[in-house]
Design a protein that fits this description.
Helix content is 36%, strand content 9%. The strands form three sheets. The chain has a two-stranded antiparallel sheet. A two-stranded parallel ribbon has the order 2-5. The longest helix has 13 residues.
Length: 241
């Protein structure tokens, strides 16, 4: 969301600073915007039902930060990540998902459990099954939404962010002032890695298959049996080829 926040100006955007560390400011504006005369549109850093929750929780759960936002007027922008590299990201930051992280994570791919708000504990045959179910909830939604690939944000940030901005009715930053976050952002130990670092990591083809064995590929193939998601987002893997 930082790329969009820095490089897109919305016509009804609430006034305020635009910077790399304005998460708390944006959150505070959500509560103020509804009561504002004329109703400015706050920049939400997550959907009202929670960034990690599936689309099926829209209207059934409200995250604390989205308590005053009108979910019916929110255009979700979902960043989709290659399932093979997403697995490695989950090893670093499991985001509340419980799974076996021993050994050469993410291998072996085994059962994963998530406790969703209002839905309770849900078990998935593997992390890849979770990836498929979560993204399918957005892909199959009837309401307007945008699903963009993380890799396009990484390798084609100007074109991708500009398209998203214009789709939402905003004015995109010109190429000569576009901020691609090459140096990263944030402060302290939680500082996000730079785009340069991630270009080296995700531009390495061998990184995708790293720490996955033949059994894991079989699990991948079972989770993505109809290949609908990987074909829609143009992610290939050994079992699909």
């Amino acid at each position: 969301w930082k790329l969009l926040r820095l490089n897109c100006r919305m016509p009804r955007e609430c006034d305020g600073p635009v910077g790399r560390d304005d998460d708390e400011y944006s959150t505070a504006r959500v509560a103020e915007a509804e009561a504002a005369v004329g109703g400015c549109a706050p920049f939400l850093t997550q959907v009202p039902w929670g960034r990690n929750n599936p689309y099926t929780l829209k209207g059934r759960h409200v995250a604390q930060r989205g308590a005053r936002a009108n979910a019916s007027e929110v255009l979700p922008v979902v960043v989709v990540k290659d399932p093979l590299t997403w697995l490695k990201s989950m090893c670093r930051r499991p985001a509340g998902v419980k799974f076996d992280r021993a050994g050469r994570c993410p291998s072996p791919l085994k059962q994963a459990t998530v406790t969703w708000p209002t839905l309770g504990s849900t078990q998935y045959a593997s992390l890849v099954h979770l990836w498929a179910a979560w993204h399918a909830s957005y892909l199959d939604a009837a309401a307007p939404r945008l699903l963009i690939r993380y890799e396009d944000l990484l390798f084609r940030p100007l074109e991708t962010v500009s398209d998203v901005c214009r789709c939402a009715g905003g004015v995109a930053a010109a190429a000569d002032v576009f901020d691609s976050l090459d140096e990263g952002f944030g402060r302290g130990p939680g500082r996000r890695r730079s785009r340069r670092h991630n270009l080296r990591r995700y531009g390495n083809a061998s990184y995708r298959d790293a720490r996955l064995n033949a059994n894991d590929v079989a699990v991948l193939d079972a989770a993505l049996a109809d290949h609908r998601l990987v074909r829609h987002f143009r992610y290939g893997y050994k079992g699909e080829e």
